[in-house]
Write the structure tokens for this entry.
Amino acid sequence: MKLLYIDPGTGSMLFTILIGVLGTGFYLLRKFWVKLRFLISGGAKDTVKLQERIPFAIFSDSKRYWNQFEPICNEFEKRKIPLVYMTASPDDPALEKGFQYVKCSFIGEGNRAFAHLNFLKADVLLSTTPGLDVYQWKRSPDVKWYVHIAHASSDITLYRMFGIDFYDAILLSGEYQIHQIRELERLRSLPEKELEIVGVPYLDAMARRLAQAGPIPNHEKTVLLAPSWGSSGILNRYGGTIIEALLTTGCHIIIRPHPQSFTSEKEMLASLMQQYPASEQLEWNRDNDNFEVLRRSDLLISDFSGVIFDYALIFGRPVLYADTSFDKSPYDACWLEEELWTFRTLPKIGRKLSQDMFPQLRSLIDEMTDNPEYRAAIETARKETWANRGEAAERVADYMIRRQKRE
């Protein structure tokens, strides 16, 4: 049976070879068919109907990124410009929208979605998905321009290695990200990408929601534990120890694992959820939309997750970030010598939480939630990583339209 085992790297290579063979056959067959129809029609070119090219397309590998794409789709709908939104999630909220000009479709999960994308015909394709031309997702010869937009308002180098190398353009949220990308390009001898600072569509949408939501009802003090995933994340590092410490505070505790944890760390999570089941004091949250759990929390505890900045920038509240000895080695950040913007900013908008502070966690929570000194630092962070506030979706649409006219 061991002879049948294929490791992930070999599997990816075999998948790439298969896509290459299928792609070559597909294009040769299509070329032959077009030529045959041309000859049958007596040379009348206007009778040859090729697959129509999509002017504007979006690909989302998960429904959890709908919060970033919805404002952009709404902008195209408002302008009455056709857009195709493709998702790899069969339950993506986009599929329930009654758009007139935005066509939303489920293109399959995993390799099925990538196979679809590998043969796509489009002028401009926008995505948050890293790894273009690295693993299964290959550049289609019939897509003219690939555009990446980040799904978090922090360092652009916190993707797994080579995650954005082969996009044509990157839409950014802050000036500091330009230097990070240019340095990676220099170190890897890559051609310069087109970079444009647009802002953060989902933060703009969250800010509007908060303005419309009204005051929070009276509630017991609530702490949200929202870690990232991977070996440097809080739950991997501290496990049940931090949950025990939180429960002893007497606060209401919400634990919201990173969605990827339910795929990549499901055994670890299943063990913790069994050991610490939901109760009146403790809830496990898996909502696709994190707005309400952020809104009703008085304090956030996280690590290096982008949710830290969602929380601080939108709600203006400080954070506790765990001392997890972040390992840069799997990420693009490991190529750069400079300190990450995330770790330069965290000490200004919150406090580091180490394990020896767990016994004093309640007093620390009370001190943090009642301290106004963090507001100025949070406003500085807003200026650095959330450009063009309130205008991001419009600027993304403007960029895509402008780029398509140049193609």
